[in-house]
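Translate structure to sequence.
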């Protein structure tokens, strides 16, 4: 049995972004690029996670680690090559995901903080997505966070037990408004 304590720091989390174009993988790139409306700053962080959903070709949907990001696109490793189709100009959504629980370990979140980094009131949500069953449930839904303050979603002895392969998704009603700090324990 192995126990590992882990932390993640994710800055600038905001809204789910509508995908306006999908550049499929090629044998030479081995990566996919998603395009969205231009943001004021890059909305995702290289090395951290995203969740892609709603794309017509299922190989694009799932949890990925960002390999490149600009203010209007995000790239991740993926070998899917098919051409996705859009509905009313939208291919799907891409959202920040601080954590996907290990498929072969028990994961317990022992600390989870969201900080509003803006001078305005925001609404934040935390969702849990079971990638095996495909179900999504809110852990926190549209909670108000005052300007320059924090919400402690898991703290003070509380624990959030995650089933294997569960994505934690954080969104806000305001772009680039949340910094997330999460600590967890994996036992395998």
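Result:
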């Amino acid at each position: 049995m192995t126990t590992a304590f882990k932390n993640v720091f994710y800055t600038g989390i905001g809204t789910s972004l509508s995908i306006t174009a999908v550049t499929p993988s090629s044998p030479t790139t081995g990566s996919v690029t998603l395009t969205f409306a231009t943001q004021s700053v890059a909305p995702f962080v290289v090395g951290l996670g995203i969740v892609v959903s709603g794309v017509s070709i299922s190989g694009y949907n799932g949890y990925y680690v960002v390999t490149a990001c600009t203010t209007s696109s995000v790239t991740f490793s993926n070998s899917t090559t098919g051409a996705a189709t859009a509905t009313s100009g939208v291919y799907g959504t891409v959202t920040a995901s601080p954590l996907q629980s290990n498929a072969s370990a028990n994961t317990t979140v022992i600390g989870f903080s969201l900080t509003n980094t803006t001078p305005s009131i925001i609404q934040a949500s935390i969702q849990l997505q079971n990638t095996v069953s495909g179900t999504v449930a809110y852990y926190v839904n549209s909670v108000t966070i005052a300007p320059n303050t924090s919400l402690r979603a898991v703290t003070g002895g509380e624990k959030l037990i995650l089933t294997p392969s569960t994505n934690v998704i954080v969104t806000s009603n305001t772009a680039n408004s949340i910094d997330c700090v999460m600590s967890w324990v994996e036992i395998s």
